[in-house]
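I'm stuck. Please check this protein.
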Amino acid sequence: MNWFKENSSAIQAFASIVGLVVTIILACLTYRYVRLTKKLVDSSLEQTNFIKESSRIVQKQNAQALKALALNLRTHLTFPLSHTALAAFNMLTEHEITNIESSARQVDNGAIPLAVEAVAALRVIYGMIQVAKSIPKNMGWMPTEQETKNWAAAISTSHRNLQALESICEQVTKT
């Protein structure tokens, strides 16, 4: 015990030096940890920006595809309601109708209700085309008054909504 009493100031100095060394080591480790964390944050932000840009590119591509599909259908759905015209029309398929719905979901939330209305009208048109195709040409087919009204309403609705979809797609591709 005498030794401790005689060397107490040296022991305190040694303990202070050890405490200082431990503090310096902890400060260095903390500094390295902060630098590493900053690098991780920067990397995460870079990945987030890349993902956002990639999704924006995909959105623009979908908008261009939907615009082209809507324009193609709208410009080709201009023929009169007749057995010959309906039976010969091959531009509208279930695949195109489904593409309108799925593409609208990937383009813009405002496009979804327009696509739903356009698809409903296109399904009426598609149904009438299928009926006309199922009837032999030599038998002929004359639409009823109700079918004529349904056709006119479906054509009008599909044109209006397809044109509105084209406008939304144009806005998306410009931004």
